[in-house]
Specification:
Number of strands: 17
Order of helices and strands: HHHEEEEEEEEEEHEHEEHEHHEHEHEHH
Strand order of the largest sheet: 14-13-15-16-17
Largest sheet: 5 strands, parallel
Number of helices: 12
Strand content: 15-25%
Distance between the termini: 86 Å
Oligomer: single chain
Structural class: alpha/beta
Radius of gyration: 32 Å
Length: 432
């Protein structure tokens, strides 16, 4: 009974208090009619509370997010479908969905009576200016009786995740494979260094065809192994993202780190669209996907894998690049997006050039992102660029006022790559 009375609303408590007062006054004055009124006022909210708490509302909720993956600054729509599969109708309902504050305020909806076997659908937009993985839900429902005496709260347990990826911009198309060694389609050679067996099999990854499982290697290594596709020539690219906190300036979406993440996402998507196999390295080994994506995975899936990893990547507490990148050789093209670098950092990252066909670097002028104009980098960006060029890197300096496509165009032009005819046509327009 105490639990049932705790669900009374202000109106229900007012009726209960009025009924008790009327009953006490009726007993004191000897008024039987007033006593009947008091008893009626007492019984009405009490009986309603007991019936409402014993009622079994069979509500089901389905949540859909369209699209489930958006770029920062874009809008997604959340649809809630509420079903009443039971036989008892519901009263007035107030719906409130739990939403992180970065996606906006909590949406609230008022629905009238939901009859048996009926369903209602409501939707609301969400938008985030920052990237990340944001859980939406659970949904809480407050149900009221027709008289407004009782209010019950029910909560669902299901949640749906919205992935907000970095902003991806279109980059100018250039001929990236013409200067590389190789044969066939001018793709760089990417042979494994440990022997033929390593070339033929590798560990199973999500999305691999089960028909490619190599059972003999699986039994020997006690791990699920699959056969590689016989493709000796692959266009490979390694993207290095500097995530050290001390190497960047600014805060929020306007920081140099967010600029670097957006540049990484744009370059990775651009290269995957050109047929490259792309991997991501950072100074933090735990946050990087250091393995090559299998050539059997399609380009769009490979791009989504990269964007999902960049959606949740954050700054690290490391102070140097030495421990994380010193022993990681690469094949194909290496593209580094770097913050402020010391001589030891440049020497460490130059170890990735072993086996690489080209080494390109986007060096951020982090002092330009600092709000305090008095604070400058410990080493001018021009000296950092000269040190990188002395070790064989092609360098382009990026500042906040320069969009990523302009920096990419300067970088590829400095590397000697030529623009494709389609890109030139898009810039100049068709001939008259």
């Amino acid at each position: 009974m105490r639990t049932a009375l705790s669900t009374l609303t202000t109106r229900g408590r007012a009726f209960l208090s009025g009924g008790i007062t009327s009953a006490v006054c009726a007993i004191a004055l000897g008024q039987k009619d007033l006593l009947r009124v008091g008893l009626l006022l007492i019984m009405l909210p009490c009986v309603t509370a007991l019936l409402a708490n014993r009622a079994r509302y069979r509500l089901s909720c389905t949540r859909e997010i369209s699209p489930a993956r958006v770029q920062a600054g874009q809008t997604a729509h959340v649809s809630l479908r509420l079903d009443n599969p039971g036989r008892a109708p519901t009263g007035l309902m107030l719906l409130e969905d739990q939403v992180p504050y970065v996606l906006g305020s909590r949406p609230r909806f008022v629905l009238d009576q939901l009859r048996p076997r009926w369903q209602r659908t409501v939707s609301y937009p969400v938008r985030s200016e920052v990237r990340g993985r944001f859980p939406i839900g659970p949904l809480s429902v407050r149900i009221s009786d027709p008289f407004g005496f009782v209010e019950l709260t029910r909560a669902f347990t299901s949640r749906t995740v919205l992935v907000v990826t970095p902003v991806v911009v279109d980059l100018p198309a250039v001929r990236l494979s013409g200067d590389w060694s190789g044969s066939g389609e001018n793709r760089p050679r990417a042979f494994a260094a440990a022997g033929t067996e390593d070339v033929m099999v590798r560990e199973y990854r999500l999305g691999d065809d089960l028909r490619r499982i190599h059972w003999r290697s699986t039994a020997r290594t006690d791990e699920l192994m699959v056969r590689r596709e016989e493709q000796p020539h692959q266009s490979r690219a390694t993207i290095v993202l500097d995530t050290r906190t001390g190497a960047h300036r600014g805060s929020g979406p306007a920081s140099s780190f967010e600029y670097a993440v957006s540049a990484t996402a744009s370059i990775g998507a651009h290269l995957a669209g050109l047929g490259f196999t792309v991997r991501l390295l950072t100074d933090d080994v735990r946050a990087a996907d250091a393995t090559w994506h299998d050539r059997g995975i399609s380009g769009p899936v490979e791009v989504q894998m990269l964007l999902e990893s960049l959606a949740v990547i954050g700054t690290s507490t490391r102070t140097s690049l030495t421990a994380a990148l010193a022993d990681r050789n690469s094949a194909g093209m290496v593209i580094a997006i770097l913050g402020e670098c010391s001589d030891s950092d440049i020497a460490s990252i130059s170890g990735l050039r072993a086996g690489a066909t080209r080494a390109l670097a986007i060096l951020l002028d982090t002092a330009s992102w600092s709000r305090d104009k008095v604070v400058t980098s410990s080493r001018p960006v021009q000296e950092q660029a000269r040190a990188l060029r002395a070790r064989g890197w092609v360098v382009a300096v990026a500042r906040p006022s320069q969009p990523v496509p302009a920096v990419w165009q300067d970088l590829t032009a400095s590397a000697g790559f030529t623009q494709s005819p389609r890109s030139v046509l898009e810039q100049t327009g068709p001939a008259a």
